[in-house]
Amino acid sequence: MSTLKPPFQTLNSQFKLQIPLKLSPKPSKILCSQNPNHQPPPKPITILSILRSIPDWADGVKERRMKQPRPLYKHSDWIRHRSSARHLRHLLSSLNSRVILSLVPPVIAFTSVAAVVASYNTAVVWHLLPEVFPVLRASSLPYQLTAPALALLLVFRTEASYSRFEEGRKAWSKVVSGTNDFARQVMVSVEEDCLVKTALLQYIMAFPVALKCHLVYESDIGRELQDLLEDDDLEILLGSNHHPRCIIQFISQSMKLLDLEETKRTLLESKVTCLHEGIGVCEQIVGIPIPLSYTRLTSRFLVLWHLTLPIILWDDCNWIVVPATFVSAASLFCIEEVGVLIEEPFQMLSLDELCIRVCENVQEAMKSEKRIQETLLMKKEAASRDSSLNGHPTSGNEQKNRSNSSSPSSR
Q1: Which of 73, 124, 215, 307 is 20 to 30 A from 285, alpha carbon to alpha carbon?
Q2: What angle do CA 340, 344, 347 make, to 5 degrees?
């Protein structure tokens, strides 16, 4: 007599992967003279390595700050955000800003160039160098003509980055709302409480987490989904190349095992289509940046501007060109750096908090579903008892007799 497998086990058996083990044909040889704890010799210190140390340090700090989770704003956060003391607070926390720390290499470089130009011109003016060497000076007219072009270039670059940020925010808003609505439709459409329904709701909760790990670099999807999925489901998911689409396959196969009406099945399939659209929009934002020629043009324009700025300002400022170059580089490169940071929006959004909220909302709805149904049934039964105690509703003939008896002719 054949035994029936539970639907949850049947669903998992359709995704079993067979991965052959590959063994090396020959054992590796370890010589006696080799030390397993041997460390490679340190790299020699060169001028290039010294020059690269500051940019590498700034990039490391910026990338570590980018990986930190960002909480969603609450009422207390908004009060602090618009407080009148925000300017002083922002100024005092400048050294902790990843934007300002990323500006350390270019600002130091251009300020150093300004100091070299000022030292050279001072040496020439004081006749410390032969008369062959000229004073580095130029008219400021070219800068007055190109300053509006640089301003427009920075504004358009930042605006294009913000539009990508807004598009990513809207895409994730649709994913979150679609996931919540999908879970609600499943709980309403599937009346019986079975294992397949529970598994389907778990897959729906796992979809935003899988999409977030697919978009954010160096995310540990196994650690984040170990509490949502079973071990065999998680093993299949980790073996796939595209984790969000693998979750959608789990959802589709689960829906096949449910006994649903055609209209309800069509409605649930439309929710799966919305999840596919969310994947497509997010992957386009991550894979297609702002045209690289636009980014390179902005960077080259800023570099050439600040390399020649001390020469342009020498006649009017003399040694003040050093702090003037520092302020100009810190201001303009800061605007450009903000545009580069928000160009990849998913590193800036609070995706962790959004995924946690989706799971909490669905789990709360699953827990309160039966309690709400029982409460409504009790209210319905109480209303029916009250109506029976007050009397049955009168029929149409009784209403006619009452109307005839109350008419003047009958009197």
Answers
A1: 73
A2: 115
Largest Cα separation within the chain, whole Å, is 135
Q: Give dist(CA 309, CA 326) in Å, integer.
A: 11
Of 198, 202, 275, give the one whose Cα is nearest residue 244.
Answer: 275
Distances (CA, A) of 119 to 127, 197, 257, 269, 323: 12, 76, 80, 72, 14
CA dist list (Å): 218 to 45, 252, 267, 319: 31, 28, 35, 47
Backbone angles phi, psi at 132, to 5 degrees: -65, -30
pLDDT, tens only, 275-320: 999 999 999 999 999 999 999 999 999 999 999 999 999 998 899 9
Token couple for 14: 């359709």
Angle at 292 (CA atoms; ends 287, 298), nearest 5 degrees: 135
The pair of structure tokens assigned to 360 is 């909490």
Calculate the alpha carbon distances from 90 to 94, 106, 282, 339 in Å: 6, 22, 32, 19
Question: Within 10 Å of residue 391's Cβ, how many Cβ atoms?
Answer: 7
d(CA 395, CA 339): 75
Helices (H), 261-395: 262-287, 292-317, 321-341, 351-390
pTM: 0.77
AA letter at 165: F
- Between CA 175 and CA 211 the distance in angstroms is 9
Residue whose token pair is 């299949």: 236
Q: Where are the alpha helices (DSSP H) in 67-103?
A: 75-81, 86-92, 98-102
Contact between residue 312 and residue 138 where contact means Cβ atoms under 8 Å apart: yes
| Cα–Cα distance, 137 to 105 (Å, whole number) | 26
Tokens of 127: 């006749």
**Torsion, Cα of 164, 349, 342, 68 (10° steps):** -160
Residue of 194, 231, 211 lying closest to 12 (CA atoms):
231
Q: Which positions ≥6 away from 400 have C-beta within 8 Å?
A: none
